[in-house]
Amino acid sequence: MAKLSSINKNERRKKLVKQYAAKYEKLKAVANDTSLDETERLVARLKMAELPRNANPTRVRNRCATTGRPRGYYRKFGINRIELRELGNSGMIPGLTKSSW
C-alpha cells in the first residue's frame, strides 16, 4: 500500500489539471501555432508558466486503484501487475486466464 499522502497529492493534482484544462489547452494551441507571430507565442508560453505547476497534465501519476502503487500500472485495467495477477488467478477479471504451455 502506497503512502496515503502520495495518493492524496496525486488526487489534488488531478483536480487542478481538470480545473485548468481548458485554459491550458488554449494557451498551448496558441504557443504551438507556427502561423502566429513570435511575440504572441512567447506571451502564451509566459502565461502557461504562470499557471500552477501541478496544473500540467504530465505531473499526474498513474496509480493502482486498489493499492495506490505507482509502478507496474496497466492502463487497460487501472491496477498494478501484482493486483492483476491476484485478481486474475482468483477469476475476478473476466476473460483473463493464466498462461500455461
Layout of SSEs?
Blueprint: H1 4-32, H2 38-50, E1 73-74, E2 79-80, H3 81-89
Antiparallel strand pairs: 1-2
Helix pairs in contact: 1-2
Describe this structure in words.
InterPro entries: Ribosomal_uS14, Ribosomal_uS14_bac/plastid. Belongs to the universal ribosomal protein uS14 family. Pfam families: Ribosomal_S14. This is Small ribosomal subunit protein uS14. Keywords: Ribonucleoprotein, Ribosomal protein, RNA-binding, rRNA-binding. The chain has 101 residues and is mostly helical. It has 2 domains: 1-61, Helix Hairpins (Orthogonal Bundle), CATH 1.10.287.1480; 64-94, no CATH class. Helices cover 50% and strands 4% of the residues. The protein is built from 3 helices and 2 strands. It has helices at residues 4-32, 38-50, 81-89, and strands at 73-74, 79-80. A two-stranded antiparallel ribbon has the order 1-2. β1 (73-74) and β2 form a beta hairpin. α1 (4-32) packs antiparallel against α2 (38-50). The chain is elongated. The mean pLDDT is 94.
What can be said about this structure in brief?
Keywords: Ribonucleoprotein, Ribosomal protein, RNA-binding, rRNA-binding. With 101 residues, the chain is mainly alpha-helical.
What characteristics describe this protein?
elongated, mainly alpha, 2 domains, single chain, 3 helices, Helix Hairpins, 101 residues
Largest beta sheet: what is the strand line-up?
1-2
What is the architecture of the largest domain at the second tier of CATH?
Orthogonal Bundle
Percent helix: 40-55%
Q: Give the averaged pLDDT, no decimals.
A: 94
The main β sheet shows up as: 2 strands, antiparallel
> What is the radius of gyration computed over CA atoms, rounded to a whole number of angstroms?
20 Å
Uncertain segments are none
Oligomer: single chain
Structural domain tally = 2
CATH class of the largest domain: Mainly Alpha
Count of DSSP H/I helices? 3
The structure class reads mainly alpha
- How many angstroms does the end-to-end distance come to? 33 Å
Strand content: under 5%
Number of separate strands: 2
Function: Binds 16S rRNA, required for the assembly of 30S particles and may also be responsible for determining the conformation of the 16S rRNA at the A site.
Pfam families: Ribosomal_S14
Subunit structure: Part of the 30S ribosomal subunit. Contacts proteins S3 and S10.
GO cellular component, one term: small ribosomal subunit
